[in-house]
User: What shape does this take?
Amino acid sequence: MTTANAGAETAAETVEKDLTVFLVQRTGAEPDVDQDLFATGVISSMFAMELVVHLEDTYDIEIVGPELSRDNFRSVRAVAAMVLRLSSAEAT
Amino acid sequence: MTAGVDLAAIDTLVGDGPAEWDATGRIPVELLRKLGAMGVLCAEVPAKFGGLGATSLANGELAAHIGGLCSSLRSVMTVQGIAAATVRRFGDREQRRHYLGLLTSGKLACSAFSEPGAGSDLSGMATRIRPAGDGTGDVIVSGEKMWITGAAYADFVMVLGRYGDGDDGAAAMVPADAPGVSIEPVPSPLGCRAATHCRVVLDDVRIPADAVLGGGRQPLSLLFTIALSYGRMSVAWGCVGILRACLTAAAVDARTREQGGGPIAEHQLVARHIAELYTSERIATQVCVHAAEQWDRSAPDAAVTAVLAKQVGATHAARGAATAVQVLASRGFSDGHVVARAYRDAKAMELIEGSTEISQLVLARHAIDTI
Assistant: This one.
C-alpha cells in the first residue's frame, strides 16, 4: 500500500476515488461519496459479495464478523473509512 | 479420499439406508451426528475450528459423492454447511470458535430463509430479530419460516431476519429447544423426503445477544448472498452426484438387460439416452469445477458462477433422472430405487436455492450488465 504513509485525508480520498472507479466499472452508477449504496440500488445482492471480495483482495484486509455491518457499507465514504481502519490494523 | 475424508467409511455408514430413509422420511439422527463429528457435514470449516479445512472443490466432490448416495443426506449436509459458512463470515471471533466447534463435533444446524410470504423474493422477509429492550441484553426472535430443510434434526436453527425495526438484516443461532420454537415437518414432500422440510414458528423466542452473528445490522442482501451461494454450490455438486448415480444405474442396466436378442444398449434410441446422461454428467461436473475454482481463488464473479453451477446442475439432473427412469423402466419404477429417488429429488433441485426461473433472471442480469 503506497497510501499507508500519506496523510489520513489523502489516503481516504484515494480509496474513495478508487472505489468509485470500481463501482462505475461494475455497476454503471457513479455514486456521491455520501450516497446510500443499498437504498439507491447501487449494490445488488450479487454485487454485494463481489464488493467484499474486491475490497479484501485489493487492500489485503479481512472483512468478517461485526465489520460487515451495514453502517460500514452505507456509502463510499463509509467503505473507505472501514478499509483504512482495517488496513492500518492489519499492518500493526 | 476427498477433503481428507475416507469415502469408503461414509459408504459403510450410509450402507443401504437411503431407500428406507426415503420410505420413512427420516435419517437416523445418530448417523447425522456421527458424520457431523467427522466434519463431513461442513467440510470447509478450517482445522483451527475443528473442521476438515476442505477447499470448495474438495467439498464439492464430497457433496457429489454423498449426493450420489442420498439427496436427503446431502441436503442436510448443505444446510449445515450454509450455517457454518454464515457463522464463518458474519460471526465474531468468539462466535466462530463456539459455533464452528459445535458444528464439527456432532451438533446439527439448519438455516431458515423462506417464509410463507417470502420465497424467491426474500426482500419480503418479515421475521424480526429485535433487542428485548428490558435491560437483560437479550434478543427476541419472532416470525414464521417455511420449507426449512433439516429442521427436524437441528440443534440450532440459523434464522435470517430483519434487525430491530429497520430494514437491515441479522442472522441468529436459535437453539431448537428454546421456548417459543416449534418445528413441524411438512407431510409427504415430493423429493428429498428424509431431509425433512419444516414449518418453523418463532413465537417471541428469547435468546442471548451473543447468539446474533456479528451483532446483526448487516445488509440483508449480503447475508442472503453469502449464505445462499454456499447452498448453491452444494446443491450444484449434489446434482452432479444425482447424475453420476443415474448414469451408473442406466449404463449397467443397458449393458446387462437383454431385449430383442441383445443388450438394450445396442438399441440406438437407448444408446442416445446413455450418451445424453453421460454428456449431462460431464457438463455439470465441468461447470461445478469451474465455479469451485472461482471460489477457491476468491474470484469476483464467484457468486454468479455458483448460480450458473446450480442452474446447470439442477436442470441437467432433472432431465438426466427422467432419462434414467426411462432406460430402467419397470426396474427403477418403485420408490426407494436410486433412479426413482433421483427423479423426485432432482425436481426439488430446480426449486430450491433460487428456482430455475429466478436463477435465469440472475444470469440474464449478469450477462446484460457485463457483456
Summary: The mean pLDDT of chain B is 95. The first strand of chain B starts at residue 109 and ends at 112. Chain B has three domains: 7-108, 110-218, 221-370. The domain at 110-218 of chain B is CATH 2.40.110.10 (Butyryl-CoA Dehydrogenase, subunit A; domain 2).
